[in-house]
Amino acid sequence: MNPLTPTDTRVFEAYADALKALVTALGWQIDPVRLHRDLQTIASVTRRDGDGASAGLIDELARTVEVRLLTTKVSIERTVIPFR
Questions:
Q1: pLDDT means per 10 residues in the chain (84 residues)?
Q2: pTM for the whole thing?
Q3: How many of the other CB atoms lie within 10 Å of CB of 16?
């Protein structure tokens, strides 16, 4: 297996950032508490099935929902600054 080049790493980071933006936008449209819980459940099932890398990414998406949508500071900012 070839090691990742810096360009490959940046591509993966871009995909992860795009997914974080999507879960943030979804959380604004639906219940962010339920979205967070569902992502955690999906990550657990994925990890149990032996796909740790995917579970890690899904965990990161759940953390994004928690940080961007479930904290008081960000919830207040959202009413003033919709997205950064």
A1: 70 92 92 94 94 92 93 58 52
A2: 0.75
A3: 14
pLDDT reported for residue 6: 62
Task: Count Cβ neighbours within 10 Å for each residue of 33-69 and write b for 16 or more, e otherwise.
Answer: eebbeebbebbeebbeeeeeeebebbbebbebbbebb
The one-letter amino acid code at 69 reads L
Q: What is the DSSP string of the chain?
A: -PPPPHHHHHHHHHHHHHHHHHHHHHHHHS-HHHHHHHHHHHHHHHHHTT-HHHHHHHHHHHHHHHHHHSSHHHHHHHHH----
Cα 68 from Cα 1, distance rounded (Å):
36
